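REQUEST FORM: STRUCTURE PREDICTION
Request ID: SP-0412
Submitted by: Lab K.M.
Chain count: 1
Length (residues): 98
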Amino acid sequence: MSELQRVRLAGDYGADSPVWSLSDGEMIPLDELPVSDATRERLREWAARWEHLAAGGVTTDAPLPDEAARTLLKADAQRLRERLQDELGADWDVVLAT
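STATUS: Completed
RESULT:
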């Protein structure tokens, strides 16, 4: 049995990927993950939306996003986590950032 690969799904400013190794904290390029192109695209879209929403009040003068937008982003993150876990399989453990 191979060693369990533990990763975290989390947004980060300027990151090309929202997937991070829990063993060394490094970003994992999406092209290195054994997942479908559709999942890679959804991860990229989610990361871009995270960065846009997170920037308000932090890196821009834009107001903070409304509660509904933040709730939708979190729900989408959970669905992506589940999809990523399903595609990566039992040798991987995918968690969400807290």
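NOTES: The radius of gyration is 14 Å.
Reviewed by: T.R.
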